Amino acid sequence: MSKNHGPHIKNDEQYEALRDQGMSKSKAARIANTPDAGKKGGKSKPYEEWTKEELYDQAQKVDIQGRSKMDKEQLIKALRSN
Where is this region: Disordered (predicted)? Predict the structure, then answer.
């Protein structure tokens, strides 16, 4: 049973799982609060197959700074390290 982390965490179960994997509180919260977080169930295509626009939209959802000046490769790197 997952703990209730309050209204600032939208998906408590996912937040706890990410924290158990060693992610920071802020990164786990960012991911757990993404509107479509956890819905794909690992069926998403690799970032290399996404369009630049799709990558940009995802970077915007997770609040990556400087995304408007990034090319496709930089967006992929930023999303993977975020």
Answer: 1-52, 63-82
CB 73 within 8 A of CB 48: no
pLDDT at 12 over 60: yes
Cα(58)–Cα(16) distance, integer angstroms: 22
With contact defined as beta carbons under 8 Å apart, do 59 and 67 qualify? yes
DSSP structural state of residue 33:
T
17: left (phi over 0), alpha (psi -120 to 50) or beta: alpha
Q: Which ranges of the chain would DSSP assign to H, the alpha helix?
A: 12-20, 25-32, 52-61, 72-81
* pLDDT for res 54: 94
- For residue 66, pLDDT over 90 is answered with yes
